[in-house]
Amino acid sequence: AVDNLSLNFYEGNITSLLGHNGAGKTTTISILTGLFPTSSGTIFVYGKDIRTDQEVIRKNMGVCMQHNVLFNYLTTKEHLLLYGYIKVPHCSKQELYQEVKRTLKETGLYSHRHKLAGTLSGGMKRKLSIAIALLGGSRVVILDEPTTGVDPCSRRSIWEIISKNKKGRTIILSTHHLDEAEVLSDRIAFLEHGGLKCCGSPFYLKETFGDGYHLTLTKKKECDTAAVTSLIQSYLPEAYLKEDIGGELVYVLP
């Protein structure tokens, strides 16, 4: 649940909603996109009230949900054409094809444009979901854990795509990776139990609440986490393992 949450988001900025599982990130995203109604309060998007102007708001909004909403038997290009026809029906066929081509190139999917979505890797599927969200000049782009389930290399490639496309857009993303929020964000909002704990730029938050340096390691399948931890602590006894998620280990160093 979300409890008395008040936040401002700014055009040209990336704002990250950061918090552990159950902190209220996905619920907040669902309310922002109109999937869940508010029990009280409201949301204004470029002056439009989500309670009364939801259809107008959605025309300027792109969404990448936590789980890919793709069709296995459509190609990458066909996905963008399909969503493009739905999202910007007023565009001519030529304009839409040019927009799709540009989006494919910007997201690194152009060489995969004729591949079926069902044959794409996890990282490519996430890129396609993000490309759909960016399509049609979306002024508000909402990304719910955009790097979920991807390898570290694809993760950094997705970061680059998001950063390159923030001009003229208001981008809101949710994540539980501190390094992701720090790299991408102009502002970070920490959520806990559905409420806002603190909000500010990464520099401000580190200066105010920082607890040391973070060491991020990419691990292989045969990685012995205990041995790595022991090695680090032999040099820095106060260091400790903070995250062991997917293909990465994150240590806090004093």
Q: What layout of secondary structure does this protein have?
A:
Blueprint: E1 14-18, H1 25-32, E2 44-45, E3 48-49, H2 54-59, E4 61-64, H3 76-87, H4 93-106, H5 122-134, E5 140-144, H6 152-164, E6 170-175, H7 178-184, E7 187-192, E8 195-200, H8 202-209, E9 213-218, H9 225-235, E10 240-245, E11 248-253
Helix pairs in contact: 3-4, 5-6
Strand order of the largest sheet: 4-5-6-1-7-8
Number of strands: 11
SSE series: EHEEHEHHHEHEHEEHEHEE
CATH-wise, what's the superfamily of the largest domain? P-loop containing nucleotide triphosphate hydrolases
Main CATH class of the largest domain = Alpha Beta
Number of domains: 2
| CATH fold-level name of the largest domain | Rossmann fold
Rg to the nearest angstrom?
A: 20 Å
End-to-end gap = 35 Å
Q: Segments where pLDDT lies below 50 for 5+ residues?
A: none
The proportion of residues forming helix, as a percent range, comes to: 25-40%
Written description of the protein model:
- The chain has 254 residues and is α/β, with parallel strands linked by helices.
- It has 2 domains: 14-209, P-loop containing nucleotide triphosphate hydrolases (Rossmann fold); 213-253, no CATH class.
- It is 36% helix and 21% strand.
- The strands form 3 sheets. It has a 6-stranded mixed beta sheet, with helices on both faces. It has a 3-stranded antiparallel beta sheet with strand order 9-11-10, covered by helices on one side. Strands 2-3 form a two-stranded antiparallel sheet.
- Strand 10 and strand 11 form a beta hairpin.
- The model has no long low-confidence stretch (mean pLDDT 91).
- It is a multi-pass membrane protein.
